[in-house]
Amino acid sequence: MMAPNMIAETIVIVDYGAGNLNSVKKAFDYLGANVVVTSEPEKVATAGKIVLPGVGHFSALGALVNMGLREAVLQGARAGKPLLGICLGMQWLFEGSDEAPELSGAGIFAGRCRSFPSSVKSPHVGWNSLAVKEGSRLLRDVAPESFVYFTHSFRAPVVAATAASTEYGTPFSAVVEKENIFGVQFHPEKSWNVGLLMLKNFCELD
Amino acid sequence: MLTKRIIACLDMDGGRVVKGVQFVNLRDAGDPPECAVAHARDGADEIVLLDITATSDNRQTVLDVVSRTARSLFVPFTVGGGIRELSDAAEVFDAGADKIAINSAAVKDPTLIGEIAARFGSQAVVVAIDARRVKEGSVKSGFEVFVAGGRTPTGRDALQWAREAAACGAGEILLTSMDRDGTKSGFDCELTKLVAEAVSIPVIASGGAGSPQHFIDVFREGHADAALAASIFHFGLEDIGQLKRELQAANVPVRWPC
Known about the structure:
The structure holds two protein chains of two kinds. Chain A is of the alpha/beta class. Chain A has helices at residues 22-30, 41-45, 62-66, 69-78, 88-91, 192-203, and strands at residues 7-14, 33-38, 49-52, 83-86, 96-97, 112-115, 124-129, 131-132, 147-152, 154-155, 162-168, 170-178, 181-184. Chain A has an eight-stranded mixed sheet. Chain A has a three-stranded mixed sheet with strand order 5-6-10, with no helix packed on it. By secondary structure, chain B is of the alpha/beta class. Chain B is built from nine helices and eleven strands. Chain B has an eight-stranded parallel barrel with strand order 1-3-4-5-6-9-10-11, surrounded by seven helices. In chain B, helix 1 (32-42) runs parallel beside helix 2.
């Protein structure tokens, strides 16, 4: 596996009480990153880089508001800190999701997350391939048709900021990227060397 | 394209792998973390670690193994065996598992499925069902659920139970044919298809893998989303790569090269 560079800057994994953050932390630990899991808004707002994970139901993201973390994440993002949303965390970067229509997302990317067409089984679980667009910083050195591990019931639309799309009944955004904002629908921490490469790329962003 | 998953299962007794691949290049062929990573390196899409130890004073051993394994295993990692309540599941997740598999405990109390799913997400809950063909008329589908390692009949219909488990919040069904388990005579495609068509969550076929053709059959005819095998290399295959290449040649989509 790749030899990780030493990364001094703190990466925070935002803990808003939903699911299991161990796997994400372990992957960053493995890469030698200086990573902490926190639910303190102050630490999030002042971190070098922010990771917003998430599994389960979109409504779980409601806790971001209640815990004062929504503003902290957006403050960091506005200050130009690299922000990586994973799975639900990526969906939150869009305007919202049909899974919990009452809850608004960050609206950084246009469009809403919707369910899959009825022609395919849902949830979408397993290894699917990426169609990678050139020029992505997160996907630097990632082979164009790499396989990554997905598990989700809702999907984000393909937009101008889509850096990689995946097909399951319909094409959807697998990776979005705009300046310092990144989102991945799949689980890089569970996508073997390909996923670790993306996390390493994230660690090494300026 | 969404690929069909090949899942390697390590049966563990007292903290040692007792069934599974014997890799010559391993320092310790019975060490679960080494085996798990070797399988992943070889092309396994996912690892299941099944604790078959009959004693309950074994929990700390299991948690230590899970923790050591999770440290360097970056594919989905499921742990099963001995999970009886939410707190057992929480310990296994804390140690680093991505999913837990529950069997007897879920049959005894199906609300356990929803409890774990509410806290860790449905994607983290695999309900394992051991099914056996029974004589006509005893259960509607002809397949009955057995528990306690396949020894104890429950009187429940396997198809009905799979539907119920999915409705309770299970994320996947791990469906083992007790008739085929250990026989190397092929997966039970009829059973697999019956369940796979009845639920929208993924169905992992298990029991009976003996050749690459068996995998082709269970994906094509059984409509399985994934197939699991413990002694995957005991039938003359060099490695998982060879199995995947054969699947690819038969136009079954797999993650290869990976």
